Amino acid sequence: MFESLTDRLNQVFTQLRRRGKLSEADVDAALREVRLALLDADVHYSVVKKFTAGVRERAVGAEVSRALNPAQQVIKIVHEELISTLGEPERLNLTGEKPRVIMLVGLQGSGKTTAAAKLARLLRSQGERVLLAAADPYRPAAVQQLVTLGGTVGVEVFTDSRLNPPELVQKAYEQGIKGGYSILIADTAGRSQMDDTLMDELKAITRKVKPADILLVVDSMVGQEALHIAEGFRDTVTLTGLILTKMDGDARGGAAISIRSVTGVPIKFLGVGEGIDALEVYDPRRLASRILG
Ligand code: GDP
User: Fold this and answer.
1) Best CA proximity match to 35, nearest among 246, 257, 249
2) Which of 37, 40, 70, 86 has the lowest tally of Cβ within 10 angstroms?
3) Shortest-distance Cα residue to atom 19 of ligand 1
4) Binding site residue list for GTP
């Protein structure tokens, strides 16, 4: 496990007595720890640099408030900067013509199929009529997995092994209209890497059904690679949000900071376990606290 940033900063400042303002030397000593902690949390190097520069600007010369010691003061500034970098929560785009299409994209193993079912469960609990589309015909096991998960959460799953993914999503959409569904969640094919075939297919789906939301599912354990993945998908489709999965593991969420900071795509949900209810609506304050440890 990582040593928490809070502990690290407390160690840096342990020799210092409370004083009126944070000096440049104090701040630089603290920022070395902040930098290491963020790199440990797999935040991309370029983002770490920009972030610490922002903190430095705010911290040097800042008054240490009476209630806090210097370490706490720096932690407060880092926390606030983190929240600002992570961005405010943005909701799903649920109003408008029905069914609203939510398309999930991502690499194989990212937790996309699980996230589709978790999201279906969440939206159903909010009174939506949800239909799932299993648009991953290359992997029969994925279709079966979604059918099973759909059964668990009480949501119907549209499948048809004869159709290619764009046709399948189109048919599911028609079914959604006929059946009076308010939301269609499309679980698209995942591959082990981003290739032209996958990207062409995703584009073809968006041409057919015009999704209200396109959510990228990223495994938080992939570390620095997460930024590369997000940039690759963003260049193909208009991402409206991010679902960061496996946040219950050792990963501290550095991927969230990198992706949000570089691509501007807002984080919408966190996957926090294998269970079907292990989906959190993103909250920047809670995530910043987790990253700081
Ligand atoms: P897909 O290939 O992207 O559709 O990925 P899956 O949905 O099949 O998930 C891959 C594996 O990750 C499965 O074993 C899931 O149970 C697991 N998984 C998905 N989301 C989470 C999560 O938030 N936390 C944990 N611990 N495991 C997850």
Assistant:
1) 257
2) 40
3) 111
4) 106-113, 187-191, 245-248
